[in-house]
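for ur thesis appendix - Glycosyltransferase family 2 protein. copy paste whatever u need, i formatted it the way the template wanted (i think)
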Amino acid sequence: MTFDISIVLPAKNEAGNIEALLLDISRVMADADHEIIVVDDASTDQTRDVLARLRRRMPQLRVVCHQSSCGQSAAIRSGILAAKGRIIATLDADGQNPPENLPDLLRPCSMPPRATVSGLCRASGSGARIHVRNDGPRSSRTAFAAGFWATGSATAAAGSRHSRARSI
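the 3d part is after this line
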């Protein structure tokens, strides 16, 4: 079975946070075809017990367990490898990232592509440069947004549309 969205959460010793977070994710993603993958990185508290209890109530919840602590990056990798979604999002299991932001963050992934940002680099003293292949009417807006994001400057962003890529 495949899903539209897989949400991966690396977790270690999050027994006190994980239930509320998973219920919030389920609530905000209720209209989306999704799965939630929690990778327990060898927790020493009751995290696995909480997850086992929640799995009985949440069919979209999958749990991957590390037998020894491997760290956050390895936990994210394990979750991504287990994911069956077309789109993969990651959140920290400590609640640092509000699940309420997920729909807005994922919305652009469901829109048809209009432009491709194919390179981002920083030239010495002149800010970031973006190269955009023109795939439609929103290309220049995409270039501007990417340039503004990279530089924080509307002037640098506006001039970045046709710039050459250089090393950072």
